[in-house]
Amino acid sequence: MASTRIRRTPEESRRAILQAAEELLVEGGLDAVTVRAVAKRIGITDAGVAHHFGSRQDLLVALLRHGGRRMRAAIEQAVAEWADSQADVNGLIRTIARVYDQGYAELAVALHAAGWEDPGVGFLEPVVQILHATRTRAGRPGPLADTRLAVAALHQALALDATYGPAFRRSAGISESAANRPGPQRTWWANTLRTTLGLPDD
């Protein structure tokens, strides 16, 4: 007996494809995200996936942007919840790392290495502004450009840590078991950011 094909609107199909691709990314890493695997997971043909997203490369770019939207939404919510407009640096690091740890770091590194450039800018702007306001109230205003550089450095570190962090830590003489635990490194980044910008403890 033939299976009944699920009828979806184009928007529903795109959401289902991205959800399936994200699940595969989390479960098996970048290599697991193929047009065929995505199609099989939601019960459509390879051509159906290609109709909405084109090539695998196009699908991966769309998936990375999907992850970026998730991160932006999570960061905006976190900023809105920070008490008295004072930045929670540890919370910020957890928010960004949570998305990258789900495979998006590997995806971002691979796409950028292949020459793709994201035209989007400024999704960490709310973080820049609240960190700068916090340091100003703490009596350490400094130039806004320094705050931007500090946030950029933190973002770069978190993006690379999910993929390369253990190897980098081992290169500094940290033991194998400790190198695989990102917690102490993230605490160090939080402390360094607070010291560099003159922020109060969370």
UniProtKB/TrEMBL annotation:
- Key words, A-Z: DNA-binding
Instruction: Give the top-rank taxon of the lineage listed in the UniProt record for this protein.
Output: Bacteria
Q: Fetch the InterPro entries from UniProt.
A: Homeodomain-like_sf, HTH-type_TetR-like_transc_reg, HTH_TetR
Give the matching Pfam families: TetR_N
| DNA-binding region(s), chain positions | 34-53
Annotated HTH tetR-type domain ranges read 11-71
Q: What is this protein called?
A: TetR family transcriptional regulator
